[in-house]
Amino acid sequence: MTFEFAGVNFKNPQGVKYAWFLEGLDNSWVESKNRQAVYSNLQPGKTYRLHLKAANSYGIWSDEVVSMPIYIAPPFWVTWWFRLLIVIVLGVLIYWYVNRIIQFLKERQEELEAMVEQRTVELREQLDIVDDKNRQIMDSIMYAKLLQTSMLPNLDDFKRYFNDAFIFYRPKDFVSGDFYWFCHHNNISIFAVAVCTGHGVPGAIVSVICENALRNAVRECNYQNPAQILTITNVHVVEFFAQSQKSIHDGMEITLAIFNHHTLELDFCGAKLPLYYTSKGEVVKLKPDIYRIGWDTEKVVYNNQRVKLSKGNLIFAFTDGFCDQFGTETRQKFSSARLKNLLLENGLQLHAYIEQVLSITFEQWRGFNEQTDDVLVMGVKI
Asked: Does domain 153-381 fall into CATH 3.60.40.10?
């Protein structure tokens, strides 16, 4: 900032001398013949007072000191109203931006809700389809269970010709790969216990095929000769699976017995599955042949075994489901030895009691473990 001034002296205007003092900045008077006072460091927004006097060429200073206030106006960007305006503008911009974000989020939320609702409808439709398919599958399985149950003989059929009988039958699923079989012709009773490949629906299908082959073979052999019956059964099963273009190795293990009620003689033949009977406080095992039904396409030979039984003897057979069940505490299998001892200890009891003992023992042994396989234990008392 420049202050310009002039002193009047008509005799010697060049000899005029000036002195000034800017109150608020200078600490003393500044003397100079220069008619300008220049300041470059004045603070905006502050009021100063300039004091000025002059002297003639003889050095005589004027008695009067001229004073004037000087206010340095600040630039607009540091004024309070500009700062307030900036705050207002920023507030408006922030408000607008926040509203835009909120509006965007609302629109996005509406889009997501619409997508979720659409997906929910689609999932509900798919679940309805799945539920319908499940109902159809369950209806088919229940019908298969009904068919398989109708295939199995009634316990009363056994009791009609034997002193007593029991059947402990516990499929792993709705239907089973294990089955038992019985028929009576004249004074002959034929019974069998069999385990087919797999369990559940596949095992049940194989059991139907094998049961049909067994029934036809019994008729072809005129209810005699269990070894010949198994031989013919094997032929029927192999021929059935041979119709497929694929190599199928399915079939069954079976114990087959023919009992003569007049002579008390038992003819036995087994395909990998033994038969047991009690005699004089011990369990006697009739060993089976090594050939399964349906696996071997070459000619196989089964052998008959004949034993003479007595009144009160208990004849029993079982598949591997009970023996292979893992226990909760020991994590061991129940084993065939435990099962044989259990049947021997309770052999003199009523068979309804034996069936109850088997059920309680199996459940206590299994505990919370999943059932390992289909379970079948069958026994008759002479």
From this structure: yes
